[in-house]
Specification:
The protein is α/β, with parallel strands linked by helices and 167 residues long. The protein contains seven helices and five strands. The protein is 46% helix and 16% strand. A five-stranded parallel beta sheet has the order 2-3-1-4-5, sandwiched between helices. The structure holds adenosine-5'-diphosphate (ADP) and 6-phosphogluconic acid. 6-phosphogluconic acid (6PG) binds next to helix 1. One of its GO terms (cellular component) is cytoplasm.
């Protein structure tokens, strides 16, 4: 298995799309936006301010897992955004036939809430941020991943991730 998938994870507004686009650019790897793979019912729920359940997320995570495998089967490494809040969700992604590695964009409720409040044109309402933090299980023992601080600039975070990928 030679292909890697770098999953950029974290709560809504932590900077997944921003950082993943930068990394995909610097690595020359294709970028998949996990939010675009949500079933329509999930988007409707989040837009209505209702947090997703494990059952809502499961089919979505399987779609992302299969995308990772499909790219890897063609020898392509990828960068993927996915909140991947719980370890059980990451276990589904790790079923992909690739080396799946995580970068957790970690930051305070205050800082991320402030950024979300200023982000426009997105279906995810800031009111769901507390439920995102409640669901979040940080990377634990045995998980292949890096934790970075979202107070750093996207460019600094990208540098840290590129160094992590060397190993
Ligand atoms: N490291 C950072 N420093 C400052 N602002 C950031 C950083 N990362 C993201 N942002 C800003 O925060 C907001 C949320 O980022 P976004 O990439 O949409 O997060 P996510 O994809 O995790 O929901 C955006 O307005 C983005 O420009
Ligand atoms: O598992 C979930 O509850 C969702 O995936 C959620 O975590 C994600 O944040 C949304 O898809 C909104 O997208 P943004 O993360 O870009 O706000």
């Amino acid at each position: 298995m030679s292909a890697t998938c770098l999953v950029v994870m974290g709560v809504s507004g932590s900077g997944k799309s921003t950082v993943a686009e930068l990394l995909a650019d610097r690595l020359g790897w294709p970028f998949t936006e996990g939010d675009e793979l949500h079933p329509a019912a999930n988007i409707a729920k989040m837009s209505a301010g209702i947090p997703l359940t494990d059952a809502d997320r499961e089919p979505w995570l399987r779609i992302i897992r299969d995308r990772i495998s499909a790219a890897a089967s063609q020898g392509r490494s990828t960068v993927v955004t996915c909140s991947a809040l719980r370890r059980a969700y990451r276990d589904i992604l790790r079923e992909a036939d690739a080396r799946v590695r995580f970068v957790h964009l970690d930051g305070s409720r205050e800082l991320i809430g402030e950024r979300l409040a200023h982000r426009g044109g997105h279906f995810m309402p800031p009111s769901l941020l507390d439920s995102q933090f409640a669901a979040l299980e940080p990377l634990g023992p045995g998980e292949d991943g890096l934790v970075v601080n979202v107070a750093d600039t996207p460019a600094d975070i990208a540098d840290q991730v590129l160094a992590f990928l060397e190993h």
